[in-house]
């Protein structure tokens, strides 16, 4: 995997090679200083999430009350919203969150929670049926992790099967939405399956007790989910908080290259 700057260069080159025009810069990105808390704060050893300038959230049906403008004023610069899981479950608050973030001017994308008891083709079709192909949206996300606590699908395929299924899913979504999805994963899944070996893919890594450089040594990442117990003004209850890997300037460049 290459670093962020390399990924941006590859995006521009790939667009030109495919005959697609390079993306035009969007409106300037305005960032607010983060004003977040945590109901279960962690003492960070080394570089902490606070050292990153750009932060955002991911959320689902469990976030029942969101004042998006207040959240933005508190420092929320992006949001990834759960849309679907498996081949037949849609998050009942997806449209509410999707439209609320749009009205507040917060860049947002949708994510799919993967189950290994459905084919990648079936799950990709389900996501496409529920998530609009909308100008200005962030790239879709494949949330792929073990579902061993599920009563319906506790399967644990080997790494080769996992990577093959992920490639099929990513390819279908890339063809439909015009950009490569981001892959979200967890420490144990990453270790067990070799999912980090997927080429041409940006990663969003979960690590709530250590910096990704220690927990995922050698793995480049774009987003870091550093807590599941965040507290943000405008959002009732706990919420996941994430850091973007680069500076505000790098964030603006990433948005220009990766928004649809």
Question: How would you portray this structure in words?
Answer:
The protein is α/β, with parallel strands linked by helices and 260 residues long. 32% of the residues lie in helices and 20% in strands. Helix 6 links the parallel strand 7 and strand 8. Helix 1 packs parallel to helix 8 (248-258). The protein is globular, with a radius of gyration of 17 Å. 38% of the residues are buried.
In CATH terms, what is the architecture?
A: Alpha-Beta Barrel
CATH class: Alpha Beta
Query: Structural class, judged by helices and strands?
Result: alpha/beta
Indicate how many domains the architecture comprises. Answer: 1
User: What's the name of the CATH homologous superfamily?
Assistant: Glycosidases
Radius of gyration: 17 Å
Major beta-sheet overview: 8 strands, mixed, barrel
Q: Which regions contain 5 or more consecutive residues with pLDDT less than 50? A: 1-28
Give the % helix: 25-40%
CATH topology: TIM Barrel
What is the first-to-last residue Cα distance? 23 Å
Strand order of the largest sheet: 2-3-5-6-7-8-9-10
Average pLDDT number: 89
Strand content: 15-25%
What shape does the CA trace take? Answer: globular
The number of distinct β-strands equals 10
- Succession of helices and strands: HEEHEEHEHEHEHEHEEH
Number of helices: 8
């Amino acid at each position: 995997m290459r670093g962020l700057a390399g990924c941006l260069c590859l995006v521009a080159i790939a667009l030109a090679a495919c005959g697609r025009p390079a993306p035009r810069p969007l409106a300037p990105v305005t960032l607010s200083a983060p004003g977040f808390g945590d109901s279960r704060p962690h003492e960070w050893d080394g570089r902490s999430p606070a050292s990153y300038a750009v932060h955002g959230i991911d959320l689902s049906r469990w976030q029942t009350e969101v004042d998006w403008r207040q959240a933005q004023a508190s420092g929320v610069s992006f949001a990834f919203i759960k849309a679907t899981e498996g081949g037949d479950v849609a998050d009942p608050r997806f449209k509410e969150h999707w439209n609320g973030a749009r009205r507040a001017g917060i860049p947002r994308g949708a994510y799919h929670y993967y189950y290994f008891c459905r084919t990648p083709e079936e799950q990709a079709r389900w996501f496409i049926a529920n998530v609009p192909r909308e100008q200005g949206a962030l790239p879709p996300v494949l949330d792929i992790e073990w579902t061993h606590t599920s009563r319906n699908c506790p399967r644990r395929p080997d790494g080769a099967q996992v990577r093959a299924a992920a490639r099929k899913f990513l390819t279908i979504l890339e063809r439909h939405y015009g950009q490569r999805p981001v892959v979200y994963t967890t420490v144990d899944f990453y270790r067990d399956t070799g999912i980090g070996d997927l080429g041409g893919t940006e990663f969003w890594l979960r690590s709530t007790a250590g910096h990704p450089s220690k927990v995922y040594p050698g793995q480049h990442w774009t987003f870091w989910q550093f807590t599941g117990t965040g507290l943000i003004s405008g959002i009732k209850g706990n919420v996941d908080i994430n850091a973007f890997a680069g500076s505000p300037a790098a964030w603006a460049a990433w948005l220009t290259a990766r928004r649809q």
